[in-house]
DNA sequence: TCTTTCTATGACAGCGGTTTCAAAACTCCT
DNA sequence: AGGAGTTTTGAAACCGCTGTCATAGAAAGA
């Protein structure tokens, strides 16, 4: 359990001053090749690793960016997180995660911790921390949000073409001859859910189809809620031949409910989701869904933050969605 | 962009010395109620938040524990990570993640970063970092491993009853009348995969059934590889009525392959997985699988590390598995 | 050869906390 | 009131590294 060597140890061994060691470490200014070599040798010999904590304190920059997420176990957030991590690799920033578990208090605690750790930037993944707080934080350190819209900070929020994606999905169903299309929406408080629902309604209207309130039921983005929503739909006794779910997870739940009722997909009812999670290509049948690459979004967010950190405008693109047609949708039965 | 207040600012405002501020912050020694109140008021007023980086440097402890994982997007590692996080909550330790993306170089880099950040402890989730390195690291800071076995550090490794779990799964199949049971194994370099395969063979042998090499094919734990494995199996032309997959993800792939071939689950072939990922209850049909709660494992690992940090033996339990019978297995057809 | 420029280097002062140590301020007794 | 025994408090050193600044040396010009 020998103590970690420090710059002074290296300095002593290499017969130079700590400053010089620091210089070869950071390359901040030239040092004589011979000394440089000596330092490097000492570093090698003692297996020295600069203490980033000390460096952060001295420099006033931690080179860490904080990711405020909701859950590490969720497929959705996991992919997003991975994307951010990828986007940051190559830069000298590292990321640390803190999750809010969809609870206000925990989210606040997580945020405080991140801030106390002196993160140089922040990426907020969903959640419902008040806009005002986030605005205030943005005064201190750059911030990017994904999956939520902060009033007054629109250009720091990564926006997805939710309505257009939903429109496409429903249009696809309509083209297959479906007229009675149900929608299992997401949490209404969530902007993505509202936009997707709007896209659903627009597609119907555009095709001259009526929007029937009885055909839409609200879920909460979980598989469980998809299953429940399907039950509710069935209980209403209204006819439908296709369902558009506001996300893939709910589509999975719906698919199970259908299976339980002996309804086949896509023969009896067509099903389309939204997200295109990694697993959606492997459901049975593979799910037709609106793809919004979370990996890509994470990367965009990271890049945006890097821009901000370099004093440039975030320059976030609007992320497009595309319909990936697999096997859960089919022409309506005659 | 006003600078963050520091202890000195608080000290000045509260008319005390920085030492006293530190004392009320840490409660390390008693301070006069009146002064304490003044300090607290100043903290409140300036919205002061101690700089954890500075504190870590001063105390020589970061209160951070590092999690070396492989991928944030993977369901499996995500659940594990979540478990660790949960296990740590309540303690004053925080965790930071670094992922190796299943690449030696990236893993090494991630590990270096964690160490440079002065983590107080380390939890290694899978990966294939050489045992020797890990042993060396354990000399410096406490370490716990999940999903791998480090020679010479067995009691720091969380062990799962893989063989017993696999045995149970196959036994279940045998009880349902299956005689020709295929196995899609995991990466042989992975101890879990080897143990599960052993359990499979033991169950067969115990029941007096032959172990047929042609019935087992090696996958790499991904859905894709499950699909491929099934193709390989089918191509061999050997008959089987059930498949035991070494993990759920491969089971998903197999299930899709079966669907593609028009083979019904469980009517034509029974399928059982291993892990019980969150999504496995929502596949069609819901997957019969061997449950090993990753959340729980994460929690155990965290608790073990906390023990180590408190200079106690890690005291890791051996994690049991249990068969959860859902709808992907059925009595063999007459 | 003696200035005049540069360049490489070391001393030193932080960064924002914590902690030790000794002095100061109160107790409580006699 | 005087002294011993407790608290409470501030000064100062330190954690490990960086960056500024002044100086010593080397190179260049006269």
Could you write a compact summary of the structure shown?
With 334 residues, the first copy, chain A, is of the alpha/beta class. Chain A has helices at 7-14, 18-26, 33-46, 52-59, 75-88, 104-116, 131-140, 162-175, 191-206, 223-236, 248-260, 294-309; strands spanning 64-69, 94-99, 121-125, 143-146, 157-160, 181-185, 216-218, 242-245, 270-275, 288-291, 318-319, 322-324. Chain A contains twelve helices and twelve strands.
SSE map:
2 copies of one chain form a homodimer.
Chain A: H1 7-14, H2 18-26, H3 33-46, H4 52-59, E1 64-69, H5 75-88, E2 94-99, H6 104-116, E3 121-125, H7 131-140, E4 143-146, E5 157-160, H8 162-175, E6 181-185, H9 191-206, E7 216-218, H10 223-236, E8 242-245, H11 248-260, E9 270-275, E10 288-291, H12 294-309, E11 318-319, E12 322-324
Parallel strand pairs in A: 1-2, 1-3, 3-4, 4-5, 5-11, 6-7, 6-8, 8-9, 9-10
Antiparallel strand pairs in A: 10-12
Helix pairs in contact in A: 1-2, 1-3, 5-12, 8-9, 10-11
Chain A binds a DNA duplex (30 and 30 nucleotides) through helix 2 and helix 4.
Oligomer: homodimer
Number of helices of chain A: 12
CATH architecture annotation name of the largest domain in chain A: 3-Layer(aba) Sandwich
Widest sheet: strand ordering of chain A:
2-1-3-4-5-11
* Portion in strands of chain A: 15-25%
Shape of chain A: elongated
CATH homologous superfamily name of the largest domain in chain A? Response regulator
The end-to-end span of chain A amounts to 77 Å
Helix content of chain A: 40-55%
Largest sheet of chain A: 6 strands, parallel
Report the C-alpha radius of gyration of chain A, rounded: 26 Å
Task: Work out the number of β strands of chain A.
Answer: 12
- What is the count of structural domains of chain A? 3
Mean pLDDT of chain A: 95
Largest interface: A-B, 50 and 50 residues
């Amino acid at each position: 359990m020998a103590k970690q060597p420090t710059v002074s140890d290296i300095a002593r061994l290499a017969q130079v001053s700590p400053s010089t060691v620091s210089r070869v470490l950071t390359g901040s200014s030239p040092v004589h090749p011979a000394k440089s070599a000596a330092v490097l040798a000492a570093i090698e010999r003692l297996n020295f690793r600069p203490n980033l904590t000390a460096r952060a304190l001295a420099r006033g920059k931690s080179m860490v960016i904080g990711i405020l997420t909701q859950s590490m176990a969720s497929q959705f957030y996991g992919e997003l997180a991975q994307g951010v991590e990828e986007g940051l690799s190559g830069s000298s920033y590292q990321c640390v995660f803190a999750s809010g578990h969809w609870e206000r208090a925990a989210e606040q605690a997580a945020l405080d911790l991140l801030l106390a750790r002196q993160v140089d930037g922040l990426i907020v993944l969903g959640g419902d921390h008040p806009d005002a707080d986030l605005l205030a934080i943005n005064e201190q350190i750059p911030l990017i949000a994904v999956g939520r819209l902060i009033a007054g900070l629109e250009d720091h929020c990564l926006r997805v073409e939710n309505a257009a994606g939903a429109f496409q999905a429903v249009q696809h169903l309509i083209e297959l001859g479906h007229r009675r299309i149900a929608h299992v929406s997401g949490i209404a408080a969530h902007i993505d859910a509202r936009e997707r629902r709007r896209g659903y309604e627009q597609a119907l209207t555009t095709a001259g189809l009526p929007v029937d309130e009885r055909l839409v039921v609200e879920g909460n983005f979980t598989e469980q809620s998809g299953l429940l929503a399907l039950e509710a739909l069935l209980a209403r006794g209204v006819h439908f031949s296709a369902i558009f779910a506001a996300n893939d997870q709910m589509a999975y739940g719906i698919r199970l409910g259908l299976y339980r009722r002996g309804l086949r997909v896509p023969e009896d009812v067509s099903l389309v989701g939204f997200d295109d999670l990694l697993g959606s290509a492997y459901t049975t049948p593979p799910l037709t869904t609106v793809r919004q690459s979370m990996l890509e979004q994470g990367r965009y967010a990271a890049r945006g933050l890097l821009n901000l950190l370099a004093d440039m405008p975030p320059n976030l693109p609007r992320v497009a969605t595309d319909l990936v047609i697999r096997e859960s949708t089919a022409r309506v039965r005659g």
